[in-house]
Amino acid sequence: MTTSAAKTFDFDDLKRAIEDSDADTLVQFYADDAKMIIVDRNRPPSSPMTLSGKEAIAAFWRDVCSRNMTHRVGREVVGADRAAFVEECAYPDGCHVMSSMTLDLRVGRIAKHLTVQAWDEVSCATERAS
Question: What Pfam families does this protein map onto (predicted)?
């Protein structure tokens, strides 16, 4: 299983899709039964945002990719069944978001996606933290 994941998961394609805000391509990286967990100031570890299934994750990515902001991916570590990286985002008004992401891979697809993110407290509107 890990050999198959190593051959079919292409981190460079994932990075390009994130940086290009390409929601349609991003969704193709996920298994149908994938789970996404997001932890931040408004969704603490005891009550994180949890999205189950490819359709829920697709709606999340469509929302994020529709926003007027830039995305930069770096500090990646990629293995046969896991990948981790940092995404740095910036809105035109100067608000910055930094996310640390860990992906558990199964047969070349993302089975579990964990994000821990922090927003600029001073310059960002609280309602934008989603």
Answer: SnoaL_2 (PF12680)
